[in-house]
UniProtKB/TrEMBL annotation:
GO CC annotations, alphabetized: cytoplasm
Source species: Acinetobacter sedimenti
Residues the record marks as active site: 629 (proton acceptor)
UniProt function note: Catalyzes the transfer of the enolpyruvyl moiety of phosphoenolpyruvate (PEP) to the 5-hydroxyl of shikimate-3-phosphate (S3P) to produce enolpyruvyl shikimate-3-phosphate and inorganic phosphate.
One GO MF term: 3-phosphoshikimate 1-carboxyvinyltransferase activity
Keyword Zinc-finger applies: no
Protein name: 3-phosphoshikimate 1-carboxyvinyltransferase
Membrane-crossing segments per the record: none
InterPro entries reported in the protein's UniProt record: 6-PGluconate_DH-like_C_sf, Enolpyruvate_Tfrase_dom, Enolpyruvate_Tfrase_sf, EPSP_synthase, EPSP_synthase_CS, NAD(P)-bd_dom_sf, PDH_C, PDH_N
Keyword annotations from UniProtKB, A to Z: Amino-acid biosynthesis, Aromatic amino acid biosynthesis, Cytoplasm, NAD, Oxidoreductase, Transferase, Tyrosine biosynthesis
Class in the EC hierarchy, top level: transferase
Gene name linked to the record: aroA
Residues where 3-phosphoshikimate binds: 329-330, 334, 476, 478, 629, 656
Length: 756
C-alpha cells in the first residue's frame, strides 16, 4: 500500500495460479497491494482452494472474464501457453493494463506477444522472471516468502512504459526480491547456463542411472552427493519440457560447452595427467568459493550493503597472550604472482587465506596456472614461465584488493591477450590512473573505464613494452611494483625512483626468485632498476606474520592497563616498522625479540606491555610510508594518549580502502574524541591522563565504509569504551585478517560478530 493508502494496483488478475502465481498472490494480499485480486484457471478446485486460502476475491474459468478492468495481469502459466492466453485476453484488456509473466524463458514469450499484438506491443507489456521455485507445485505449495532474497529479472522492451516497469519493481520488492533489469537475449543466455543446463544434467544423470539393470542398488547406496545433485530432477517434467524447447538455441549451446569441458576431464583422467586434473579440480573448487563470495557480496558491490557487524562491550580486564597473527598480505600476493610466472614449482607456507590474497590466487587460476591449496597456509604453484599465462575466460574480479589490481596492471599490460579487472564497491572508487599513466609511457594499452580514473581497468594485449625511468610522484609501493613488473617483459632497463622508501617486498622477492634487481639509495627514497627479458625460478617462500595485522594488537595492548602480549614471528622488514617506531615515540612499552631471517624477510617476536600512559606527539613524516596502513590503529592510540597528536604528510590515507582521514575523524568524533582532519593528516586531542585508566571512548555507532582497517581499529577502541561500540560493515575484515575476532577474544576483548 502506498503512503496515501491507495493500493499499488486496482485489480490484479492472475492467469494460472500454481506455485509462483499463488506465492505472489499471498504477497499482494498480505501487503494490501491491490483493491481486488482475481484469477482464472482451468481447475475449479484450484479456484475454490485459492478463495478459501484468502488468496483471491473471485475466480473465473475464462481468462477473458478475469482480465476485465484489471490494471495488472500476471501470466503465471507454463511458457508454452502464453500465446493462447494473450490471444484470449487481447480484446478485453484495459488500454493502460500492465501485463507481465513469470516464465523461465523470455525470447519466446516476447515472440508469442508479437504473434498476437504484432510489432506494436502494448506499452504495459513487461516480461519478468522470478528466479525462485521449489520441486513442489500447485496453489497449496505457494509461500509468502518464496521470493525473499531471491532475484527477479525484468526484461523491459523498447516499447515498455517506464511507469509500468517501476510499478513491477515495487511489486517484486514488496516480496523482498532483488529486482534486476536486463535484455531478453541476455536473460535467456544466462539462464541457459545457470539454470536450464543444471536441470538438464540432473534429469540426464537420474535417467542414465534409472536405465541401468542394477538401478535399485545404485539408488539404495547413493550418498548425499547424489541426493544434492539430483534433487532438481524431481521438478515438474511438463514445465521443463516447455523450457527446454522454448530456450532451445541457448540450451544447445550450453550443452556443447558442457560436452567440451567433460571431454577435457575425460582426456586428463585417461592420460592420468595428475597436474592437469588437480589444476582443473582446484580451479573449479576455487571458482565455486569465489562465485559464492561474489554472489553473497552482490548487494555490497551494487548498493554498498552491510551484512555483518561487531559489537564490543566494555569491561575487558586484560589484553594478553602469546600467539601469531596471519600471514603478510603484501608478501602473500607477491608469492602467487611470482610463483605463477616462474619456471618450476613454488611452495609457499604461512600464506594469508584472506579474501584479497585469494582474489590474486583466483586470478592466476583463471589465467591457466595450476595452484594447489591453500591448505593451512600452504600453497603449491606450478609456474608457467614468463610466457605461459593464458587469456582468462572473463573479467578478473579483484574484490577489495588494490594491490592485486595495481600489480596485475603491470603484469597484464605485457601479455599478448586482453583482460579486464573489476572490484568491489571500495576498490571501484580507488585511483588507477597513477599506475595506468606510467604503463602507457612503456607502451601499454590500458584504460581506466570507471568514472574518475577508477576500475574497471581494461587492458588490450600488447607486446614490445619499452623500459622507462619513472619518478614516482607519490610514495606508493603498489605503483612502484606495477611498473617494475611490467619491466620484466620490457625491452631494456626499467627504473623507478621513489620520493621516500616504500615497502620493498617486490624487490626482495624477485631476488629470491633469482631475478637481478638493483637498489640504489638516493637523497630521499631509493632508485630500483631491473632489466627486462630475464626469468624467475620457482622457490620456497615463507610468509611472515603481517605487521599490519599485528598493529591492532600492539595498540590494543599499549592502551590497556594490564596487558602483556607477545606476537610471534612478525615480519619486521624495515620498510614496514613505522608503527613500532611511532608507538615507541609515544612511550609504549614495546620490545622486539629474537630477530631472525625467514624466507628472505626479517622477523621477530614483539612483546608489548600495557600500563604506561602514552604521550601525544607530532608523528614523524619520514615514518609515514613505513606505517601507511597502521594509521587508523595509531589514531586510536593517539586518542588514548595524553596531549595532542599531529599527523602531517599523509594525504595518501585519503585514497586507501576508504578516505581514512575523514572516516576515522567521523568515528572518533562519534566516540567523544575531539579531532580536526586536515588535507594531509589529522590533529587529535588525546584524553589520556597519567596513571588514570578510566574509559576514553563513549559508546556509539561506527560506519566502516567497507574498510577492514577502520573496522578493526574501532574494535580496539572497545578496550577503553564506557558503553558498547557497534561497528557496521565488518565483512571486509576477512580481506586481510579472517581470524581477527577469534584472536581478539582470545586476548580478552569482549567482541561479538553478528550477521545483519
Ligand atoms: C601495498 C602497498 C601500500 C599499502 C597496501 C599494500 C603493497 O599501498 O597501503 O596495503 O602490497 O604494495 P600504496 O602503494 O598505495 O601505498
Amino acid at each position: 500500500m502506498s503512503a496515501n493508502n491507495t493500493p499499488l494496483f486496482e485489480k490484479v488478475a492472475f492467469i494460472g495460479l500454481g506455485l509462483i502465481g499463488s506465492s505472489l498472490a499471498r504477497v499482494i494480499k498480505a501487503h494490501h497491494l491491490a483493491g481486488e485480486v482475481v484469477a482464472s484457471t482451468r481447475s475449479e478446485k484450484t479456484l475454490a482452494d485459492a478463495k478459501q486460502l484468502g488468496l483471491i476475491d473471485q475466480g473465473f474459468s475464462s481468462a477473458s472474464e478475469a482480465v476485465q478492468d484489471a490494471d495488472l495481469i500476471v501470466l503465471a502459466l507454463p511458457v508454452q501457453a502464453t500465446e493462447k492466453a494473450l490471444q484470449q485476453i487481447k480484446p478485453y484488456l484495459r488500454a493502460d493494463a500492465i501485463i507481465t509473466d513469470v516464465g523461465s524463458t523470455k525470447g519466446n514469450v516476447v515472440q508469442a506477444a508479437k504473434n498476437v499484438f504484432g510489432e506494436n506491443l502494448p506499452k504495459g507489456f513487461v516480461p519478468g522472471h522470478p528466479i525462485a521455485g521449489s520441486e513442489h507445485s500447485g496453489v497449496h505449495a505457494g509461500k509468502i516468502d518464496l521470493f525473499a532474497k531471491h532475484k527477479v529479472i525484468l526484461t523491459p522492451l523498447e516499447s515498455s512504459d517506464p511507469i509500468a516497469v517501476q510499478k513491477l519493481i515495487q511489486l517484486w520488492q514488496s516480496a523482498q526480491a532483488e529486482v534486476i533489469c536486463m535484455d531478453v537475449a541476455q536473460h535467456d543466455e544466462v539462464l541457459a547456463h545457470t539454470s536450464h543446463l543444471p536441470h538438464l544434467m540432473a534429469f540426464n544423470l537420474v535417467e542414465q542411472l534409472a536405465n541401468r539393470q542394477d538401478n535399485l542398488d545404485i539408488f539404495r547406496y547413493a550418498a548425499g552427493g547424489f541426493r544434492d545433485f539430483s534433487r532438481i530432477a524431481a521438478s515438474d517434467p511438463q514445465m521443463w519440457h516447455d523450457i527446454f524447447l522454448a530456450n532451445k538455441k541457448a540450451i544447445l549451446s550450453a550443452v556443447t560447452g558442457f560436452e567440451d569441458q567433460l571431454q577435457r576431464f575425460k582426456q586428463v583422467i585417461q592420460s592420468e595427467d595428475s597436474n592437469a586434473l588437480m589444476g582443473m579440480l582446484g580451479h573449479a573448487k576455487a571458482a565455486r568459493q569465489h562465485f559464492n563470495h561474489m554472489l553473497a557480496n552482490t548487494p555490497l558491490m551494487e548498493n554498498n550493503a552491510v551484512t555483518q557487524q561487531f559489537t564490543i562491550s566494555p569491561g575487558s580486564q586484560q589484553f594478553s597472550g602469546h600467539f601469531s597473527v596471519p600471514g603478510d598480505k603484501s608478501v602473500s600476493h607477491r608469492s602467487i604472482m611470482f610463483g605463477a610466472i616462474a619456471e618450476g614449482t613454488t611452495h609457499v607456507t604461512g600464506f594469508l587465506e584472506g579474501e584479497d590474497a585469494l582474489a590474486t590466487l583466483q586470478a592466476f587460476r583463471d589465467m591457466g596456472v595450476s595452484i594447489e591449496g591453500p591448505k593451512n597456509g600452504e600453497v603449491t604453484i606450478h609456474g608457467v614461465g614468463m610466457h605461459g599465462l593464458k587469456k582468462p575466460a572473463s573479467a578478473l574480479y579483484m574484490g577489495n584488493s588494490g594491490t592485486s589490481l595495481r600489480l596485475l596492471s603491470g603484469m597484464l599490460s605485457a601479455q599478448a591477450f586482453d583482460t579486464v579487472m573489476t572490484g568491489d564497491a571500495s576498490l571501484s572508487k580507488r585511483p588507477m590512473e597513477r599506475i595506468a599513466k606510467p604503463l602507457r609511457v612503456m607502451g601499454a594499452k590500458i584504460q581506466t573505464t570507471g568514472e574518475k580514473g577508477t576500475p574497471p581497468v581494461s587492458i588490450t594485449g600488447a607486446q614490445g613494452l619499452k623500459g622507462i625511468h619513472y619518478d614516482l610522484p607519490m610514495a606508493s609501493a603498489q605503483v612502484k611494483s606495477g611498473i617494475l613488473l611490467a619491466g620484466l617483459w620490457a625491452e631494456g632497463a626499467t627504473s623507478v625512483t621513489e620520493p621516500e622508501p616504500t615497502r620493498d617486498h617486490t624487490e626482495r622477492m624477485l631476488r629470491a626468485f633469482g631475478y637481478d634487481v638493483k637498489t640504489q639509495k638516493q637523497d630521499h627514497g631509493n632508485q630500483i632498476t631491473l632489466q627486462g627479458g630475464g626469468k624467475l625460478v620457482g622457490t620456497n617462500i615463507q610468509v611472515p606474520s603481517d605487521i599490519s595485522s599485528a598493529a591492532f594488537f600492539m595498540v590494543g595492548a599499549a592502551i590497556s592497563q594490564n596487558a602483556d602480549l607477545t606476537l610471534q614471528a612478525v615480519g619486521i622488514n624495515p620498510t614496514r616498522t613505522g608503527v613500532i617506531e611511532i608507538l615507541k615515540q609515544m612511550g609504549a612499552d614495546i620490545s622486539v625479540l629474537n630477530e631472525r631471517i625467514a624466507g628472505g624477510e626479517p622477523i621477530a617476536d614483539i612483546h608489548i606491555r600495557g600500563g604506561k600512559t602514552l604521550k601525544g606527539i607530532h608523528m614523524p613524516e619520514d615514518q609515514v610510508p613505513l606505517a601507511i596502513d597502521e594509521f587508523p590503529a595509531l589514531f586510536i592510540a593517539a586518542a588514548c594518549a595524553e596531549g595532542e597528536t599531529i599527523l602531517t604528510g599523509a594525504a595518501e590515507l585519503r585514497v586507501k580502502e576508504s578516505d581514512r582521514i575523514q572516516v576515522m575523524a567521523d568515528g572518533l568524533i562519534a566516540l567523544g574524541i575531539q579531532c580536526q582532519p586536515t588535507d594531509d593528516g589529522i590533529i587529535i586531542q588525546g584524553k589520556g591522563k597519567t596513571g588514570e585508566w578510566s574509559p576514553i571512548f563513549t559508546g556509539g555507532q561506527i560506519e566502516s565504509h567497507h574498510d577492514h582497517r577502520i573496522a578493526m581499529s574501532f574494535s580496539i577502541a572497545g578496550l577503553r569504551c564506557a558503553e558498547p561500540i557497534t561497528i557496521h560493515g565488518t565483512e571486509t575484515v576477512a580481506t586481510s585478517f579472517p581470524t581477527f575476532t577469534e584472536l581478539a577474544k582470545k586476548a580478552g576483548m569482549l567482541i561479538q560478530q553478528s550477521d545483519v
